[in-house]
Amino acid sequence: MKVVELTKLLDEFVESRFIHYLTIDIEGFEYGILRELIGNGQFAKAGIIICQIDAELHNPKFPNAHDSIKQLNPVRFILDFLDTPSPYIPIFNVPYLRHPHQKVSFVNIVNPECRRAFKIESYFDRK
């Protein structure tokens, strides 16, 4: 299977580095993708903006977990993901399947277009 860089895919086929919604379930490799979207990550530096990300975060203790995530602490990952300069906050987190993997939804609360599209202010309205 041919692998295409995300930036190339977005530039050539989507013609934008702005994505309203992304869902990822890539058997443990989602941690690496998410890491690259924040701070000095490759995708953050390339100007890729995603408004909402729904990710299935695979359990590193799952028997078939890829070696690259077997030592990963999922709670520490989420805390680091929020601590590193990140435009994302998790708005939904639930165990999924019996392993348990986690279904997590992140929203971009920094980008003005994302804020408008997802009505971010409505979540913080104290009325």
From TrEMBL:
Methyltransferase FkbM domain residues: 5-69
InterPro entries the UniProt entry points to: FkbM_mtfrase
Pfam families: Methyltransf_21 (PF05050)
Superkingdom as given in the UniProt entry: Eukaryota
Protein name from the UniProt record: Methyltransferase FkbM domain-containing protein
